[in-house]
Every structure is written in structure tokens, then in C-alpha cells.
């Protein structure tokens, strides 16, 4: 290749390459490097700020007053609640029928109080993870205890002449949600007297 190029052109080319290597910076930044992308899309840190605990965690008084006023005047509309029954969460409203699968001790006609409330169009009371006891009362009545429809459990091992068919039914308990009541004073729920009638 050197023989094909004229001597003048070859000497100029070698001078340019040597000058460019000598003047080149030691570190070069690439446009597609991880470091440059991180700098490009990084956000600025928020300045350090001391926050008063009462202001940070407390609700504004006007919000609590509005909620208490709606509950006192019964203007909150149709309430819903997310309750935990037998380890499962259910979203319920008044006059709903809730099906609990598996064995459950309450008998027909018994009225029970669902205390494990996990969560109206106007406001929401959110527990972390449960709402305080006494703040929301969900009353339900056991209306029926029966068995589910017949379910089939079929097992087969190919090329082994092994087939098994089993039929089974699951006990079910039907609950009617009678009412969902919220304490009139949201910020100060009533104290719980005892846990005698609680079913966990």
C-alpha cells in the first residue's frame, strides 16, 4: 500500500496521524456509554428538609370535619368495604351475598361482625394494613350452609394404563351483608371492649 501512494501524500498522512495521537485527550466520553446516559437522565436530589411529624402524618382538620359531617348527615352514599374472611379479601357492599368456601364454624341464622376491614365515592378510609377496630362495623348473617356443585378430579399417566377419576364437593357458607357502619367521629374511633365474639 505504501508503494502505491506517492511519497508526499504518505508523509502528510503520517504527520497528521502522529499529531492527532499526540493532541488526543487521555479520556474520551462516548455518547452511548452508561455513564453519560445516567448523567443525562438523572434527576436532581431534593434538598434536605425537616418535616414536623404532626404535619406529615396528620390529616387536615377540614378534611376530617367534612367526612364527619357527611357521616352524621348520612350523605356518604353507598359504602363499600374490603374485608378479610378466612384468609381471603372480598370487596362488599350492603345487601351483598358472600360465599365462603371450605369449613367454617358459624351456623345458619347467626349474626357475625367482620372486624378485619382492609379498606364511597366521596372518601376512603385506608388501613395499614387494617382499619382501627371500632371505626367500621360490618354486620353479616349466615343464610345458608351447603355443598358446592360436583367437581371432577381426573388423573392419567400416559402409556401406564393408569386413570383415576374422583368426584368431590366443597362445603360453602353463604353470608348476607346487612350493614356497613362508620363511626361518626373518624379521628377518634370508640375503644374496643373485648374480643369475645370475634371469629378469626
H and E string: HHHHEEEEEEEE
**How many separate helices?**
4
Distance between termini? 89 Å
Q: How large is the share of residues in beta strands?
A: 25-35%
Structural class: alpha+beta
Helix content: 10-25%
Q: What composes the largest sheet?
A: 4 strands, antiparallel
Radius of gyration using CA atoms only = 35 Å
Biggest sheet: strands side by side, in what order? 3-8-5-4
Query: How many strands in all?
Result: 8
Organism: Dendroctonus ponderosae
Pfam family, one: Ribosomal_L21p
GO molecular function, one term: structural constituent of ribosome
InterPro entries: bL21-like, bL21-like_sf
Structure description:
This is Large ribosomal subunit protein bL21m. Belongs to the bacterial ribosomal protein bL21 family. With 200 residues, the chain is an alpha+beta fold. It has four helices and eight strands, in the order ααααββββββββ. It has a four-stranded antiparallel sheet, with no helix packed on it. The protein has a two-stranded antiparallel sheet with strand order 1-2. A two-stranded antiparallel ribbon has the order 6-7. A hairpin with a 2-residue loop joins strand 1 (80-85) and strand 2 (88-93). Mean pLDDT is 75; it is low at 4-10 and 25-34.
Amino acid at each position: 500500500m505504501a508503494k502505491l501512494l506517492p511519497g508526499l501524500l504518505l508523509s502528510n498522512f503520517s504527520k497528521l496521524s502522529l499529531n492527532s495521537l499526540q493532541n488526543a485527550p487521555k479520556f474520551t466520553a462516548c455518547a452511548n456509554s452508561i455513564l453519560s446516559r445516567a448523567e443525562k437522565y438523572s434527576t436532581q436530589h431534593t434538598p434536605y428538609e425537616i418535616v414536623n411529624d404532626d404535619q406529615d402524618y396528620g390529616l387536615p382538620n377540614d378534611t376530617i370535619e367534612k367526612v364527619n359531617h357527611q357521616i352524621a348527615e348520612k350523605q356518604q352514599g353507598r359504602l363499600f368495604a374490603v374485608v378479610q374472611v378466612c384468609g381471603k379479601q372480598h370487596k362488599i357492599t350492603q345487601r351483598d351475598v358472600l360465599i365462603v368456601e371450605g369449613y367454617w364454624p358459624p351456623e345458619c341464622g347467626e349474626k357475625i361482625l367482620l372486624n378485619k376491614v382492609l379498606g364511597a365515592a366521596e372518601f376512603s378510609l385506608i388501613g395499614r394494613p387494617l382499619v382501627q377496630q371500632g371505626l367500621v362495623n360490618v354486620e353479616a348473617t349466615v343464610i345458608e350452609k351447603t355443598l358446592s356443585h360436583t367437581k371432577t378430579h381426573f388423573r392419567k399417566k400416559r402409556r401406564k394404563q393408569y386413570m383415576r377419576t374422583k368426584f368431590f364437593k366443597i362445603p360453602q357458607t353463604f353470608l348476607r351483608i346487612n350493614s356497613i357502619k362508620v363511626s361518626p367521629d373518624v379521628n377518634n374511633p370508640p375503644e374496643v371492649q373485648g374480643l369475645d365474639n370475634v371469629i378469626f
